[in-house]
Design goal:
The chain is mostly helical. Among the domains are: 1-41; 92-151, Orthogonal Bundle (Arc Repressor Mutant, subunit A). The chain has 5 helices and 2 strands. The protein has helices at residues 2-43, 59-68, 92-103, 109-120, 126-138, and strands spanning 142-145, 148-151. It starts with a helix and ends in a 5-residue tail after the last strand.
């Protein structure tokens, strides 16, 4: 009985090792394909950006060709891939004010960056956030004291 269990354990360990090796191999192939896709997307010109040269064909034929042409890039949702850049629904300045208002007084710029990432899905560079905060400070909407930001006190 113990020998049967040991034999089964050995078979499972060997099978697991084969699966792990295949996973590593597939991950390497995927990385190579992604790199090739990035290179090709940089090298392939877009139709609108490059004007045609030479003799032109009829407009009906050109329109039919463009209508049948597949999109230049296909993105698949894969593991470890960056998300495609989406248009921001809220401008950075407005999102910054909302973040400071939601987080309360005396929040650091790093806390604001984290909030923007979580709530708005915005990956903001530190210098861009700093510039937005500075514009609000100059405009009188935010106040800064020793690296902490808060909503400016309104008089009246």
């Amino acid at each position: 009985m113990l020998d049967d269990i040991a034999a089964q354990r050995q078979k499972l360990a060997e099978r697991l090792a084969r699966i792990d090796a295949e996973q590593v191999k597939l991950a390497e192939q995927l990385a190579e394909l992604e790199a090739a896709e990035r290179v090709l997307s940089r090298l392939s010109p877009t139709k609108a950006a490059t004007p045609r040269r030479g003799r032109r064909t009829g407009t009906a034929k050109a329109a039919a060709t463009e209508a049948e042409a597949p999109p230049a890039r296909h993105r698949s949702a894969g593991r470890g891939r960056r998300r495609a850049a989406t248009k921001q629904t809220v401008p950075l300045g407005e999102a910054t004010l909302r973040a400071v208002g939601a987080l309360g007084s005396d929040v650091s710029a790093e806390q604001i960056r984290s909030y923007l990432g979580k709530q708005f899905g915005m990956q903001v560079r530190a210098n861009h956030l700093g510039r937005a905060l500075h514009r609000h400070r100059v405009g009188g909407r935010l106040s800064e004291h020793e690296g902490s930001w808060s909503m400016a006190q309104t008089e009246g």
